[in-house]
From TrEMBL, chain A:
It comes from the Bacteria. The keyword ATP-binding applies. Keywords: ATP-binding, Nucleotide-binding, Transport. SMART domains: AAA. InterPro entries: AAA+_ATPase (IPR003593), ABC_transporter-like_ATP-bd (IPR003439), ABC_transporter-like_CS (IPR017871), Oligopep_ABC_C (IPR013563), P-loop_NTPase (IPR027417). This is ABC transporter ATP-binding protein. Residues 8-256 form the ABC transporter domain. One of its GO terms (molecular function) is ATP binding. It comes from Alginatibacterium sediminis. CDD domains: ABC_NikE_OppD_transporters (cd03257). GO terms for biological process: peptide transport; transmembrane transport. The keyword Transport applies.
From TrEMBL, chain B:
This is ABC transporter ATP-binding protein. InterPro entries: AAA+_ATPase, ABC_transp_ATP-bind, ABC_transporter-like_ATP-bd, ABC_transporter-like_CS, Oligopep_ABC_C, P-loop_NTPase. GO terms for biological process: peptide transport; transmembrane transport. GO terms for molecular function: ATP binding; ATP hydrolysis activity. The keyword Nucleotide-binding applies. It holds the Pfam family ABC_tran. The keyword rRNA processing does not apply. SMART domains: AAA. Residues 6-257 form the ABC transporter domain.
Length: 338, 324
């Protein structure tokens, strides 16, 4: 799935963790791309490798994590081959990141002003006065009064701190912002406010977003395209609405069924039986087999790989080997009875 | 409807936040909160962090004492349960499930110990009976095979399984009231529904009265018949779950419901109809409606006095001047 126009291209990425209990392949053969101005989402349960993918993009891994295979192409250049100097120029200026619980990533003993100047003056050859006036502009963008630049982080509410962090990620006008669970620690009302702000800024500045969360409902609403990860593998990639309306992988279907609806009749939902896979005990064949309603003999022997089953809709499941068959509720209940 | 097993009337709770010399500053965590819990039904309490929803549960569990108002258990004031025996009796009936399944089990004891202890504390069993009883309870909460699970230590179980152990401990003492404080928020998405379904079964089969505290309105709707919406220590709207969620009458509930992620719509369109405002710190001297600072329908009256409770129907109440 290579496109010339892609801003970010991740090809066959593998990340290993070297642990006492054995080597764990946390990310296995993951490939996707993000177009300029696109919002791409990665969803999955904790431990599925979605944050590990995010860290790989700006090469933030430290031992025991190693990127063992694959390539990360940003604007056609291989990030994994960058020298330290190139990497420093690339990080934040080209690709910035909002970390999980980002509101705690501000330094509590420095004034906000200091933290803006730090980023701006490290990357650009500007005076402190210029940096401060830039910081004021940035605060305006995220609807915080510029006078508050001299405040400390604890003087802001959670949502405001999150907006400050977003303002800092925007400081160098990056082409890609990686957002790792940017709103998990926030209340729904604040979450919506922040996401609407981010979307508005994206329209204004035209950056791309890699958005990571475990909340599928939120993701469907916010993203253009979504990739679903399970146990280190990408199992389905499709436009947001088709992931939600016509999931092709049983895991995606189960994940969709794990969020009770707000409207419509109340009915019993089952979630997904079993437990997430322990990556030290990866079975032969499909990784989802022990939790899958549709398991058959082939799943136990042959590993799955992503195939384009419909236009722009990729899934890794043997179920569709012979003919394409979207998953329906009737079929799932039928399988259960057997 | 049958009489309530827990009835809370006009609870007020203040917490001291600072003390300088003789000057004490306190905040009002709960103000005039009333609700009822019925057997075989669940009441969901939803609200943002800091709205006082956990404080409500802790007062019912007798972990905090209310400054004013009264909580009745089977028509009896819970402050009357005094002394070891009476306290034991109360606690065997009213149990809590906490948010963090990783912190609420003792890592040096087996699962058997965790379930056996409440059994022994409240009942007398022979050694043989005890083992059977523990395994029976573990099976009830879906921890199969029970004899094997009983031998394990907490670190050998997943988060979902640990939360099941916590629920098993509620069953072990034969609790009639379960206060679940965000029981699923620290669990993996695919595991959450299993726990909610288990709670649903216990509610309908064991006839438990349940309080389900959450910030997730969709799961509140899934589990609970009744819902109460809290904001800054006040219950602003409560009643039948579907009625409140689908026809919210209080401006805050409307805001909250509109902010819930909905895959059917897209974030690209509309913005929240709300003027930004800070969530206030409520003190015993604060006046008016707590939402007044953020409400688009605000009037002078809202800033002066707390709105009265208005019954919109038999099972729908709202605290707002728009409806009085």
């Amino acid at each position: 799935m290579s496109q010339q126009s892609a801003l970010l291209q991740v090809n066959n990425l593998c990340v290993d963790y070297i642990t006492d209990a054995g080597d764990v392949r946390a990310v296995s053969d993951v490939s996707f791309e993000i177009a300029p101005g696109e919002v791409f989402g990665l969803a999955g349960e904790s431990g599925c490798g979605k944050s590990t993918v995010a860290f790989s993009i700006s090469r933030l891994h430290k031992p025991p994590a190693f990127i063992s295979e694959g390539e990360v192409l940003f604007d056609g250049k291989d990030v994994l081959a960058f020298s330290d100097q190139e990497l420093q120029a690339f990080r934040w200026a080209q690709c910035s990141m909002v970390f999980q619980s980002a509101m705690n990533s501000l330094n509590p003993v420095l004034r906000v002003e200091e933290q803006f100047c730090d980023v701006l003056m490290a990357h650009e050859d500007i005076s402190r006065a210029q940096a401060i006036s830039r910081a004021k502009e940035l605060l305006n963008i995220v609807d915080i009064h510029p006078d508050r630049l001299r405040d400390y982080p604890h003087q802001f509410s959670g949502g405001m701190r999150q907006r400050l962090v977003i303002a800092i990620t925007l400081a160098l006008k990056p082409k890609l912002i990686v957002m790792d669970e940017p709103t998990t620690a926030l209340d729904v009302v604040v979450q919506r406010e922040i996401l609407q702000k981010i979307y508005q800024l994206k329209e204004q500045f035209g950056f791309s977003i890699l958005f990571i969360t475990h909340d599928l409902s939120l993701m469907v609403e916010f993203c253009d395209r979504i990739g679903i990860m399970y146990a280190g593998e990408l199992v389905e990639v499709a436009p947001a609405k088709s992931i939600f309306k016509q999931p092709l992988h049983p895991y995606t279907y189960g994940l969709g069924q794990s969020f009770p609806p707000m409207l419509g009749p109340k009915k019993r939902l089952e979630g997904i039986p079993g437990h997430p896979l322990n990556l030290l005990e990866v079975p032969e064949g499909c990784r989802f087999q022990s939790r899958c309603e549709f398991k058959h003999a082939r799943c136990e022997r042959v590993a799955t790989s992503l195939k384009e089953l419909q236009h722009q809709h990729w899934a890794a499941c043997h179920r569709h080997d012979s003919a394409l068959a979207p998953i329906t509720a009737e079929e799932v209940s039928l399988c259960k009875q057997q | 409807m049958q009489t309530a097993i827990i009835e809370a009337n006009n609870i007020v709770k203040d917490f001291e936040i600072s003390r300088q010399g003789l000057q004490r500053k306190s905040m009002r965590a709960l103000n005039d909160v009333s609700f009822k819990l019925h057997k075989g039904r669940a009441l969901a309490i939803v609200g943002e962090s800091g709205s006082g929803k956990s404080t409500v549960a802790k007062i019912v569990a007798k972990m905090h004492k209310a400054n004013a108002g009264q909580v009745l258990f089977n028509q009896r004031d819970i402050n009357e349960f005094k002394g070891r025996k009476a306290e034991l009796e109360y606690r065997s009936n009213v149990q809590m499930v906490f948010q963090d399944p990783f912190g609420s089990l003792n890592p040096v004891h087996t699962i058997f110990h965790h379930v056996a202890r409440p059994l022994l504390l409240h009942n007398k069993f022979s050694k043989h009976e005890l083992r059977d009883k523990v395994e029976f309870i573990l099976e009830q909460v879906g921890l199969n095979p029970a004899s094997e699970t009983a031998q394990k230590y907490p670190h050998q179980l997943s988060g979902g399984q640990r939360q099941r152990v916590n629920i098993a401990r509620n069953l072990a003492v034969g609790a009639q009231v379960m206060l679940a404080d965000e029981p699923t928020s620290m669990l993996d998405v695919s595991i959450r529904l299993g726990i909610l379904n288990l709670m649903e079964e216990m509610k309908s089969e064991q006839d438990l009265a349940m309080m389900y505290i959450t910030h997730d309105i969709a799961t509140a709707r899934y589990l609970a018949e009744d819902i109460g919406v809290m904001y800054v220590g006040h219950m602003l709207e409560w009643g039948d779950t579907d009625e409140v969620i689908h026809h919210p009458q209080h401006p805050y509930t409307q805001l909250l419901v509109s902010a819930v992620p909905n895959p059917e719509q897209s974030i690209h369109g509309g913005t929240l109809a709300e003027e930004r405002g800070e969530i206030p710190l409520w003190t015993p001297h604060s006046r008016g409606c707590p939402f007044a600072g953020r409400c688009k329908h605000v009037s002078e009256q809202c800033r002066q006095q707390l709105p009265p409770v208005v019954a919109l129907s038999e099972r729908h109440f709202v605290r707002c001047f728009l409806h009085s």
